[in-house]
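Regression check, glycine case 454:
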Amino acid sequence: MTGGFKMKVLVVGKGGREHALAWKLAQSPRVTRVFCAPGNPGTRGFANNVPIEPDDIRALVDFAKGEGIGLTVVGPEDSLDKGLVDAFQKAGLKVFGPTKQAAQLESSKVFAKTVMRYADVPTPEFKVCDHPDQARAWIQTRDYPLVVKANGLAAGKGVIVCATGEEALKAVERIMVREEFGRAAGRQIVLEKRLIGPELSILALVSGRTIITLDPCQDHKAVFDDDKGPNTGGMGAYCPAPLGTNKIMSQVETDVLVPTVHAMKRKRMPFLGVLYVGLIVTNQGPRVLEYNCRFGDPETQPLLMRLKTDLLDLLEAAVDNRLDEFEGKIEWDPRPAVCVVLASQGYPGPVEKGFVIHGLKEAAKLPDVQVFHAGTHYDGRDVVTWGGRVLAVTAMGDDILDARKKAYDAVNLIQFRGMQFRKDIGLKALNPLPLAALPPVTPAPATPAPAPEP
Ligand code: GLY
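Current build output:
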């Protein structure tokens, strides 16, 4: 499995996830040099940052060809949706990630729901609407809370969780009429029944028929403690999440991953890359809220802290269609990892940037701690804030409380103006919500006949 050729690798993206991917790849004895396009001040310390944006597909292809890159790993969903993988494959370059067509599982909520229905994947009841009047009429016939989802990519902001029908009507107005998330993203929407329960992120490596499920993670999407406030890209995560019991993992594999991967194959859109399933766990089993087609952020940070297997060997095997060599062989550090995101004031809304970040060197000296950069910038003298999510402070410990302590000890050494973070990351691991306490899921209507293939 190991011992292949040495090579240069390229990581596309500039967030905390890409810092973690580059950091892990740099540990492979087979990697001679890591390039990040464009990377961030955190990757600058050990990799070569290249000033190419993740959506400049032509420049990325030219760079990879010119530099003789052996494997490219794509971080952001936008690059996948812009056809980065297709362009690299066409140029004969090895790249880890799905094609534009396969990445519709994430880039189109309507496509995703159609696949789920076709493959009989358990998901909350939903309705696809392509006109606001149709959406309003459906909302008025529902007696339960809804989630309103813009069809297209909207930087994680196009999903609006509503408590009342009135809120759902407002969400339709924002997405379809005012087109707040862009014209294309708002052309169609998915209205989905809102279920109550803890959420779980399951990431799987997929290549051909092989599906390797990675250890379960739990994200913290709401901006404030106790899951209060609007949803964000993710304010922290931990791994492994005890909510992902063997029973749940096996249900997800059998009822979600296998049928999805087979459905994509039957549609002649075979999936290669990370299939990340966002689930809600109900007392009738897991239900799929969404698919993502790439590593999660911030799930990747604690996940890769714990991964002992050589990441280059693993991703290259997936691209070479021999991922099966790793079945049952992925090695993990048994210790849990906790990641706390430090964000700018105002996030997930607009933020001010350019504030000096203090304490990075001190935090980096702590054992079992990695400070992954996200929205940061080096101004020639200091590292300053440069976005909503600024840093992902990640630590491993003997147990979840120890990992939390180490992560928050590091957080306490870091300061910048307006710094905000959640103080409860990882606490759910101590008390994964007892499923008996959850409200029952209304029995699903009789399974509809499989929809025709889209
Ligand atoms: N953690 C949420 C995401 O990566 O989309």
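Comparison notes: The two ends are 39 Å apart (CA to CA). The chain has three domains: 9-97, 131-187, 199-430. No diff flagged against the previous build.
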